[in-house]
Amino acid sequence: YDARAGTRGGDGYDGYTPETAPELSPADAARRARTNAGGPGFDDVSQAVASGFGQVGALAQGAKAGVGALGYNAITDQITQFDVIDAGGKPNAAAPAVQAYVNADPAMRQKLRDRAGLQLGSNKDFIKDSVAAYQEYKKFAGEVAPNLPRVADVQSPTGFVNWALQAGLASAPSMAMAMLGAAVAGLPGAAAVGTGMGLGDVTGEGIDRAVAVNDPKRFTSADRAADAAASRDDMIARDLGNRAGASLVAAPVYGAIE
User: Fold this and answer.
1) Which of 18, 64, 102, 245 could disulfide-link 130, Cβ–Cβ 3.0 to 4.6 Å?
2) Mean pLDDT in residue range 29-42
3) Alpha helices per DSSP H over the chain
4) DSSP letter, residue 221
């Protein structure tokens, strides 16, 4: 193999060549050179570990938002059943609050509605805080990630060792959580931790989508942007609530993989 020409003599190899290789940005070129130059330094190790903790933090906050979304969705359904009952219809939910509403007088029904409204607002605030924390952790992990080696950077045995080491360090915090769960409660403990991380991961994707869809900057009209900003928290909570059931179904699958 002629590394300078990028060809392999005698076998007709015509793949990657310096002429066809995409140009690297200065930052990417520096990262690639650092990956293949020698063992990782203190900064490389600390950034890999920091990235891992940032990912775990984002998963934890995503899981919190997922729990809040489940509660938000349940209360929203409850209020919908209240409306059905007031309209003379038959509710299709057997929740205690719904059954209590069926048998309540008008004064008690108003109290049940007020209580549900307070619970809905509490869940919305919980989701709002969790979403904000999720975004901060994800931003932190994203700021570190560009400095970590990528598979495409590996051009030597040294580069492979550096990539594998730093990739392992970046995933160590999440692995440690699963191992801790296994140490405390065996396989069910590991599955529980994995399910929690799965809920955080799936909900995190929903957060990214909901935040983008409900970004006031999408609107060129000042009035529409102002309306979007005012309703942003409600819409994000509603979007996550609508996805809560699917997220809960997907979370155990993630846990089984863990």
Assistant:
1) 64
2) 84
3) 26-37, 42-86, 96-103, 106-144, 157-213, 222-257
4) S
